[in-house]
């Protein structure tokens, strides 16, 4: 049976404990949490410096059985220092998370690969894979580039490549590129939909990624073809932020619709 995780961006105003309870009520087995901002001053869930939130999150996980799949976010820039993320990784170990999401902010592929290898080595004792997400406005623009970086890094034991349907549909990535990714590097994938194409500006791509995605079937991304090219049992992170609809419907209703649409697209509805 396929595993589904409620991604942070889908319910981005919910606290970590609220996300766990919501996931349990709606039938998600996991949650994804953003415990460290993706940019200075950017929104994220209060956790690392809030002991009460840590205790409540762990208590709700114990009560519901919902687990944490992935944590966000580590960005690798030219001056990357893994020690900056020690608190995030310690939290991941305490939460028994499986993966940490990694973004590339360095266009020097060889330096990026060296720093990615350092990150994997630093992350390994915490029991987390380091999943490099290709995004067309970053230093790793497509699936082929992600695989090159991982290979240049020596393909560490805990290396991973994260496939997001949005970035598949808005990059030069082909289904053959997805099928060529080694299965051992694919720990989970992110589901959403949107208009596909290579004509979007960076600002438009970032806006869509962070707050205006569509339910599977509403856009023109070949989500069925994408997931057919991925391992059949790959865990699915339901990452479908749509701030206007979530505000109008309420995040719980939106998260329910997102899960139902995802299951329908993947043929998993009862």
UniProtKB/TrEMBL annotation:
Gene3D superfamilies: Divalent-metal-dependent TIM barrel enzymes
One GO molecular-function entry: isomerase activity
Pfam families reported in the protein's UniProt record: AP_endonuc_2
Taxonomic superkingdom: Bacteria
Residues of the Xylose isomerase-like TIM barrel domain: 22-263
Keywords: Isomerase
Cross-referenced InterPro entries: IolE/XylAMocC-like, Xyl_isomerase-like_sf, Xyl_isomerase-like_TIM-brl
PANTHER family in the record: BLL3656 PROTEIN (PTHR12110:SF48), HYDROXYPYRUVATE ISOMERASE (PTHR12110)
UniProt-recorded name of the protein: Xylose isomerase
Species of origin: Rhodoferax lacus
Organism classification: Bacteria, Pseudomonadati, Pseudomonadota, Betaproteobacteria, Burkholderiales
